[in-house]
Amino acid sequence: MLFVLGLLVINLGILKKNEPTLISKASAITQTPLLNIQSFEVEPNIINVEFINSNTSYLKTPQAYQGDILTADGPLSQIAYIKDNVINYEVQEGDTILAVAELFNISEDSIRWANDLDYDELYKGKIITVPPVTGVLHTIQTDESIEFLAHLYDVPVEAIYNVNRVAYDGVKIVIPNARPVPHYKEPTGYKGIQTQEYFIRPVRGFNWGRLHNNNAVDIAAVCETPVVAASDGVVVKEKHDGFNSGYGNYIIIEHMNGTKTLYAHNTENIVSVGDIVYQGEVIATLGNTGNVYGITGCHLHFEVQGAENPFVVK
């Protein structure tokens, strides 16, 4: 019978009815690091899976080819499944989400999330997506980095690298031991001032435009003016109730392209670490906390880390 696991092609042995239980082992796989690239070509890797019993001369390695669909009528439950591929599975008569989850040794929720299932909506012949490990599937979007996804789903970067071979725009990767993240909130109120750059101006006010400390500019406005996220991202740091090295109350957001923005001197921070924010969403109110003095008064200290600050007046 033919089987396929994602990008890897696997040779599986066929078990005979009265033969003893067999143990499997897979030849070593050289893992390819994750790459943020636009396109790629890949030749299928062929992996030999050897079935060994007391008579070690008994080895069977029929081939399987890319594009085949796994079913439960083969020796799938009796092999050491090579868990680094997203696969398609054809539902069999009597299958439940629990039964399929147990077959592939992953959680029921992982199957529900991968197939957008609210209930046990399985029927014979239905093709479902099965992640290789417990977790969620994520489709890579333009400019998303693995580091951003690690923050987004609150998992270690290494965990994502360990179970994925490549990552590029449009491909689905596995985020192990993660849960689905909330959808971005629609922005409300002030949308920000759009520029030709990646970021919008985070507050309505007077931009002094002078570059200073840590690639920053100051934008002055009335205290309590809403401060918005300059671009989509995830909150990676939030500090309040202290001088905080002169920043006062501040927030750092990591964005999908790997850059970070810092918003300092806030009266109040509205978001918390781990929150997903949408470009134009209110994250704080303008203030004068921390090291604030002189003509600027209430203002936003806005830093860009990893790119040019687009609000520097040249």
UniProtKB/TrEMBL annotation:
SMART domains referenced in this protein's UniProt entry, alphabetically: LysM
Protein name: LysM domain-containing protein
Span of domain LysM: 88-131, 137-176
Organism field: Candidatus Liptonbacteria bacterium CG11_big_fil_rev_8_21_14_0_20_35_14
UniProt xrefs under PANTHER family: MUREIN HYDROLASE ACTIVATOR ENVC, PEPTIDASE-RELATED
Molecular function (Gene Ontology), one example: metalloendopeptidase activity
InterPro entries per record: Cell_wall_metabolism_enzyme, Dup_hybrid_motif, LysM, LysM_dom_sf, M23ase_b-sheet_dom
